[in-house]
Amino acid sequence: MSYTVTKSSPVLVPPATSTPTGSLPLSSIDRTLTIDAAIDFVSVFSHGEQPGERIKEAFAKALVPYYPVAGRIAEPIPGVSVIDCTGEGIWYIEATANCTLEDVNYFEWPLMITKQEMQPRPPASEKLEHQILMAQITQFTCGGFAVGIWFNHQVFDGHGAAQFLKAVGDMARGLPEPTVKPVWSREAIPDPPKMPFCGTPPPFTVFNFATTVIEISPDSINRIKDKFTAETAKKCSTFDVITAIIYISRAKAIKLAGTAEVLIAFGASTRHLLHGVMPLLEGYYGNCLYLVGITKTSEEMNNASLVEVITLIKDAKDALSTNFVDWMNGVPGTHYNLWNFGYGLTCVSDWRWVGFNEVDYGWGEPKYVFNWFHDVNIVGMVVYLNPPKPKRGIRLMLRCVKEEHSAEFCDGLLKLIHQDIAEIV
Fold first, then answer.
1. Cβ contacts of residue 232 below 8 Å, gap of 6+?
2. What is the tens place of the pLDDT at every residue in 191-220?
3. What residues are annotated to the active site?
4. Less Cβ around it within 10 Å: N or C end of the chain?
5. pTM for the model
6. Distance (Å, rounded) from C-alpha 387 to C-alpha 352?
7. In the sheet that 289-297 helps form, which strands lie side by side, from edge to edge?
8. What domains appear along the chain, each with residue ranges and CATH number?
9. How far is 68 from 192, CA to CA, in rounded Å?
10. What is the per-residue pLDDT across 128-139, written as a single tens digit (0 to 9) for each?
């Protein structure tokens, strides 16, 4: 059977009352880290009575304290983006699906409804890159619904976008104001001295990445943690374990020449490093990320043990404070630089604790949250998700190897985490 979604025309939801106008700066991290990047994701809720109107009204109320989100991104000086506080509002779409959530297997992979059907987009006359956030509420015949969100990464990181959506949830549940008051303060983050020009980056290569979903139980992760502690007398995190497993298994599967570089990169939070910089950090919803990267040769990764690579990940995280401060002070380095977009690079993104799973519009927290990256073919990506409730453990959304390397990559990954307690979905 073919499942379809019928969308209403996009409408603007402005702030519920008048809000300040003018121009607001973005921070140096906003501008450096995320030029023209955007994120699409879906939150799946098992039930909700006419959620569209309630959530629409809640957006209007939340946009009063979060009035910059109702504006547009502008570029009065080439290369320097700002927020033009126009008060126009966000584009909002209500939609209905001709099926139940069970019919589409609660958005388990492979997906049975397309990204285009579930995600909001502005009218054709509007420039996508000028938008800050958009929403689509899709109602299913079972009474469940899904919230599709598009947000511009120049304005928020994941924590910041989740903070705004939690404020929408506060309004939808009848609170008089958001639990966390928003803080802009982008100008408080210093502008580092300009780095030397490193030349024009090479052209992007488009790869045909395969998509796989793998789930790992808490027991398997804890067993590896215990082994690491027994061998090193140190602790390691779930992130350290999973990232090391991906780094090793991918490097072996793609079989680059021995001297070729294989890289892994991830965004690390710098919020704890901004306490002395920001006048008020709680409520700040701008980007607080620094790109951490590790580079080894293919031969080095082929010969490395899991304990050794976990240590590499830990050491890279431990160097975050020094590297971030160096960036703010203009010390030369590979700051916010993915070095190259070749096949040797993969990026990992941990969504488990960002906060999207805690957004409550009045019918409880979502059953499942996932992002759309199935059309990404320039850089290998792995996203760490919470599996749908009531499952426990970690779900890996893998899109980082070509089809011809996918089977070996997954086999190697499963062997490292013990195949009897890992499940390919």
1. 307, 311
2. 887 655 555 556 778 899 999 999 999 999
3. 153, 360
4. N
5. 0.94
6. 9
7. 289-297, 261-269, 345-350, 380-385, 394-399, 212-216, 422-424
8. 5-187 (3.30.559.10), 212-424 (3.30.559.10)
9. 24
10. 999 999 999 999
